[in-house]
Amino acid sequence: MQPTLLSGDRVSVNKLAFGLRLPFFDHALWSWALPSRGDVITFMSPDGQRMLVKRVIAVPGDEVRLKHHRLSINGEPAHYLHLDGSDIANDFTLPPGQYLERSMDTIRSIQISTVAPLPLNSHIELTMVPAGKLLVLGDHRNQSWDFRKLGWIDQASVIGRAERVLWSLNADSGLRNARWWLPLRPADS
User: Model's pTM, two decimal places?
Assistant: First the structure.
C-alpha cells in the first residue's frame, strides 16, 4: 500500500463503518453501508492467515481495465499527475515513480517501482465487478498482492475501513512524527 501506508504504520480501523459483526465469527449481524470507491478496507486473506489492507477501486457493476499501470473505470480513464502537479499526457506505460491517480470520484497516491514486479499479471482485461464483490488494488501497483492475485473480495468479508495512521515507527530512526493521525483518504475524494 505504499506510499499511503509505510512499514511500521499502526492504523485505526473502524469496524462499525459498514455494519455490526459477531466477534470472532465471519458473520454480519446488521449491515448499514457498503464500501465505496477509494475506501481503504481490511479483510482476511483467502487462506485466513493474515489481515490485508487494500483500496477499493471498483464496486459492483463497475467495468474496470488496467493496462500499463493505467486504470480505466466505466470507460473513463484515470488521470495521472506527477507529485509536483504536472500532468502525464501520453498513453504509454507509467515509468517508475510516485503519482496522483484521479479516477471517477477518488484521488490516491500510487507508486510504480523499478523492482521486478511480483509474479502476477500486470494487466486487468475489461471486466465487470459482480454483485456482492469488490475489486481491490494496492497503491504500490507492481508490488501488491491484490485483485490480480486474490481475485474478487466478498463485500460481506470486509472487516472495516482503515481510516488513519495512529502512529508510525521506522525501525532505523524511531518515530515518524509527521505521520501521526494522518488520514488515509484525502479530503477531496
Answer: 0.86
> How many residues belong to the chain?
189
Q: What is the pLDDT of residues 141-183, one digit of tens each?
A: 777 888 988 999 999 889 999 999 999 998 888 888 888 888 8
Per-residue three-class SS string for the chain: CCCCCCCCEEEEEECCCCEEECCCCCCEEEECCCCCCCCEEEEECCCCCCEEEEEEEECCCCEEEEECCEEEECCEECEEEECCCCECCCCCCCCCEEEEEEECCEEEEEEECCCCCCCCCCCEEEEECCCCEEEEECCEHHHCCCHHHHCCEEHHHEEEEEEEEEEEEECCCEECHHHCCEECCCCCC
What phi and psi values does residue 21 have, to the nearest 5 degrees? -110, 150
CA–CA separation, 134 and 146 (whole Å): 11
Which residues are bridge partners to 136 per DSSP? 56
> Cell 487462506 sits at which residue?
47
Q: Which residues contact 4 (CB under 8 A, 6 or more apart)?
A: 40, 55, 108, 109, 139, 184
Q: Given this structure, which CATH class describes domain 9-183?
A: mainly beta
Cβ neighbours of 41 (radius 10 Å): 24
Which phi-psi region, left, alpha or beta, contains residue 142 (left: φ > 0; alpha: ψ -120 to 50)? alpha
Return the amino acid letter for 106: T
